[in-house]
Write a structure and sequence with these properties.
heterodimer, A: 457 residues, D-Maltodextrin-Binding Protein, domain 2, 2 domains, six-stranded mixed sheet, four-stranded mixed sheet, 43% helix, B: 283 residues, mainly alpha, MetI-like fold, 13 helices
């Protein structure tokens, strides 16, 4: 049964992303420099925040220290009030802080910035304030209707206001393009063709130049959860150890011989791309942008390849909510209004490469690097066989353990050359343990489950 | 002599209280955490989970290998450096400062500096290629050749943490009465004989302290391994951090921390037995 709320939300997420990304394309050939945009918030109709003291914003996004700095200096600096921006490099620390305040029923957080999947388990806790009036007030800004719908989290209240969005794409150095397999279109690749491409590059240059972020800070687990598993098996959890999964892992293992072996130290792929250690890379848009921004003419951004079940990718939607215990709810509303202003959304895009949720055109031109990413994202969303796969939902504090299952499988199959079927059999038990502990139901593209999601053995 | 009474004990109290509050208590709590399940009941599940974890064996072997390789190497280097500093060469102070320089650099910063040396497009490959010694760039930090990663970590650690040993040894050297060496000169001892028969025995207490300190630090090695090894190699402290931060399971993290503690205590005991100082020998 896929005619579930998840599916509807998901389709909404995919369509919304397409509309929004297409809209913010605007005149993308422009030459505006990052500093060329007008100062964010200058045109915002927000009034001063009086009396409530600083607004503490806890964010599950923008945890890396340089992103925190950009949020403070480039995005939040013009807010008419004092903002305390709190973000952590590790998801677990975000959860700890949130749970501590949640259990105490009080604390400092006035605004909660988090992913759609982070909000889902909070609905039951009943700690998200209804922001329907604020949503109505902000409707003139043109926030994607589909996203507003997602922000209701299946209730009739607006529990979060959509904030920013992102996804994962591929980027290649232009010198790699000449080695594309015969007849292959870079905007319409299969995963098998990527292997062939890597093989061609290795043969011609003597070096392994595909790259994946498999280091400590890397997001490699998302490659499996949101891309390879859905593309090869049509789902993630239920199909974790089936024959198609074995086929996918065998592909990964065989492709690794063309992947730079230093990938196990890579966190953000923009760095090895810029250093020339890697020519073709997959990563989060925000972790590729510095390469594109520094030398937009040297790189090509393109959609993720497709597998037998479709072109699977992972849309990321973040929203803003106000917890019931917020010490400064008025300041929180002001901050949400501010963050949704078109020029602030543009500043956010420019600072941390997360795309706006507004359907209208943004003020100013997109800088070329951002424009290149935006075109790849739009092509990915617009693909006939696009298969948007959701970030995990309902895992709570088991999120890290869930990711670890995929990291362990990778380590054992690809690095240690163990038999995929055997490894998956063991890891399936671990995965089921995580799902059981969290009591998580299946999320799209897994078929909806009655109760806890079950790995099919 | 006047009896001191309770005064010395009273003077010890503040530091005892400090140690009890900030070291002993968390240590006991961490140990307890390792033997509890999520509801606080006694359980060996976390220990079993640690031992059964696919990274456990790698973490133990890598940590022990690093200790076994790094310690002798660092002591050889530190003794040589301490002798150079103590040789009253011209610019003695300068040598001390140069050798002590890495002490002022954080472990992670040192790791990052060494990454820029060993990364595929880093300084080392660039220099080797420039000199025509290699045709294609060597990948030092590949998970497929973990022993190469270990070599880079050993080099980085030797550079970073040898100076702390050297400082302790320099202090030890300077406390050796010059009469002893003069006496050795009178009897016509060679430099090597003086080092072996006079300096090293007199250095024994300093060596013991330095060994214990350095071994404990080696069991805790973390940032250089993370920076240079990525997910290619792992050590005990890295696993503890991974379980605490990424996987959010404090119990298994505490089990790893406890294991590091047990190993450190074991190593300390071993050095106390192997290198008894004079008082302990005769007292």
């Amino acid at each position: 049964m896929r005619s579930s709320t998840f599916t509807r939300r998901l389709v909404a997420l995919g369509v919304g992303l397409a509309v929004v990304v297409a809209a913010c394309g605007g005149d993308s050939g422009g030459t505006t420099s990052p500093g060329g945009t007008s100062s964010p918030g200058a045109g915002a109709s927000t009034g001063p925040v009086d009396g409530g003291g600083p607004v503490t914003m806890l964010s599950s996004q923008f945890g890396p220290i340089e992103e925190q700095e950009k949020m403070r200096n480039d995005v939040l600096a013009n807010f008419d009030g004092e903002v305390e921006f709190v973000a952590f490099a590790e998801a677990a620390q975000f959860q700890d802080r949130l749970q501590a305040e949640l259990q105490a029923g009080s604390g400092d957080i006035s605004v909660l910035g988090a992913l759609h999947g982070d909000f889902v388990p909070l609905v039951e806790d009943g700690i998200l304030t209804d922001l329907s009036d604020l949503a109505g007030e902000l409707s003139e800004l043109g926030i994607s209707e589909d996203y507003l719908d997602l922000g209701k989290l299946g209730t009739d209240q607006q529990l979060y206001i959509p904030w920013v969005q992102a996804t994962y794409i591929m980027v290649a150095r232009n010198e790699a393009l000449q080695y594309l397999p015969d007849g292959a279109d870079v905007n319409d690749l299969t995963w098998e063709q990527l292997t062939e491409w890597g093989a061609n590059i290795t043969e011609a240059t003597g070096e392994r130049r595909l790259g994946f972020p498999a280091g400590e800070d890397g997001l490699l687990h998302r490659l499996f959860q949101g891309h390879l598993y859905p593309a090869y098996t049509g789902a993630v959890n239920t199909t974790f150890a089936n024959a198609q999964a074995v086929e996918m892992w065998t592909w990964m293992h065989d492709t690794w011989q063309y992947v730079n072996p230093q990938s196990t130290t890579y966190g953000f792929m923009q760095e090895p791309l810029q250093a020339g250690e890697v020519w073709v890379a997959w990563d989060h848009v925000a972790r590729l942008i510095e390469a594109l921004r520094a030398n937009p003419n040297e790189y090509t951004a393109f959609p993720v390849p497709e597998g037998p079940e479709g072109r699977a990718f992972m849309p990321v939607l973040a929203g803003l909510s106000i917890p019931t215990w917020a010490p400064n709810p008025e300041g929180a509303r002001e901050l949400i209004r501010y963050l949704l202003q078109p020029d602030v959304q543009a500043a956010t895009l420019s600072a941390v490469a997360f795309f706006p949720v507004l359907t209208g055109e943004l003020p100013g031109d997109l800088e070329p690097g951002i424009a290149a990413e935006q075109q790849a994202v739009a092509a990915q969303l617009g693909a006939d066989n696009a298969l948007p796969a959701l970030l995990p939902i309902g895992l709570g504090d088991q999120g890290g353990a869930y990711n670890q299952v995929f990291k362990d499988a990778f380590q054992q199959i690809v690095i240690q050359n163990q038999d995929p079927a055997t490894v998956l059999d063991t890891q399936a038990t671990a995965l089921q343990g995580v799902l059981d502990t969290a009591g998580a139901a299946c999320w799209f593209p897994d078929p909806e489950s009655d109760g806890t999601c079950q790995v099919v053995r | 002599m006047r009896r001191l009474g309770w005064a010395p004990y009273a003077l010890l109290l503040p530091s005892l209280a400090f140690l009890a509050l900030f070291f002993a208590t968390p240590m006991v709590q961490a140990f307890a955490l390792a033997f509890q399940d999520r509801d606080g009941a006694f359980s060996l599940a976390s220990i079993e989970r640690m031992v059964g974890d696919s990274n456990f064996r790698d973490a133990v072997t890598t940590t022990l290998a690093l200790v076994v390789v790094i310690l002798p190497l660092q002591f050889f280097l530190a003794i040589s450096m301490a002798l150079v500093v103590n040789a009253r060469l011209k610019g003695q102070a300068m040598w001390l400062y140069v050798f002590a320089l890495p002490l002022g650099i954080s472990e992670l910063a040192a790791g990052i500096v060494w990454v820029s040396v060993f990364t595929q497009s880093g300084y080392l490959n660039t220099i080797l290629q420039g000199l025509g010694l290699i045709d294609s760039r060597i990948i030092w930090q590949s998970a497929e050749t973990p022993w190469l990663i270990l070599i880079t970590i050993v080099i980085a650690e030797a550079w970073r943490a040898t100076s702390i040993i050297m400082i302790i040894l320099v202090a030890g050297l300077q406390s050796i009465p010059p009469e002893f060496l003069e006496a050795a000169d009178v009897y016509g001892a060679t430099t090597w004989q003086k080092i072996r028969r006079v300096v090293l025995p007199m250095l024994r207490p300093s060596l013991q302290v330095a060994l214990i300190l350095r071994a404990i630090l080696a069991f805790q090695v973390f940032a250089t391994v993370v920076a240079l090894g990525g997910t290619g190699v792992t050590v005990l402290s890295e696993e503890a951090v991974r379980w605490a931060n990424d996987i959010d399971n404090d119990h298994v993290a505490a089990a790893y921390a406890g294991l590091i503690l047990v190993l450190s205590i074991g190593a300390t005991a071993l050095f106390l037995i192997l290198l008894p100082t004079r008082e302990e020998q005769y007292g």
